[in-house]
Design a protein that fits this description.
The chain is built from 6 helices and 4 strands; from the N terminus they run H-E-E-H-H-E-E-H-H-H. With 170 residues, it is α+β, with helices and mostly antiparallel strands. It has one domain. The longest helix is centred in the middle third of the chain and has 16 residues.
């Protein structure tokens, strides 16, 4: 006698409905972090809105408001860079002129992507060369994941959006 489990399909379907949203962080097209989450009161109008640009700037912007303001991820990397610099600071070390090197010799770009139902709805990138190699190659964003998801949820669940017209985009 064989038995079949009929409860597995509804549970999987319910899980898929709750986990419709994801964000990914890459460096040089290699995934650093991927998180699935849900959003209450999701408003599909956000996809074609000006608020989507504001959201991306709030998360990965490098010069927000023209005053050097940074998004959540670059600000986190900046703070890690400061900690790294102070931990390795040696006031007695003299750097010679020969020791200066071009930080853009090898290009390292971070990419951030938001997906809805496995379809990309927003993607942006910023240069990782501004951060020390020890910081950019050992990225740990566990402590800012809740902030990123909160930001996405707040933008994706607004009631009204400023729509982008096709003629405005050109």
């Amino acid at each position: 006698m064989t038995t079949t489990n009929t409860t597995a399909a509804p549970v999987a379907k319910k899980y898929d409905e709750q986990q419709r949203f994801e964000f990914l962080l890459y460096i040089n097209n290699h995934i650093i972090c991927q998180r699935y989450f849900n959003i209450r009161d999701y408003n599909e109008d956000v996809i074609q809105s000006l608020e989507m640009k504001e959201l991306i700037d709030a998360i990965v912007g490098m010069d927000n408001d023209g005053f050097g303001g940074m998004g959540i991820i670059p600000k986190h990397l900046k703070n890690k860079s400061i900690d790294y610099s102070w931990a390795n600071f040696n006031p007695y070390y003299l750097q010679t002129e020969e020791g200066n090197k071009n930080i853009f010799e090898k290009i390292d770009n971070f990419q951030f992507e938001i997906k809805v139902d496995k379809n990309s709805v927003a993607k942006a990138q910023f240069s990782g060369n501004l951060f020390p190699p020890k910081v950019r190659y050992a990225v740990d964003i566990k402590e800012i994941i809740p902030s990123i998801m909160t930001e996405i949820r707040s933008y994706f669940s607004q009631k009204n959006y400023n729509k982008v017209e096709a003629s405005q985009a050109l």
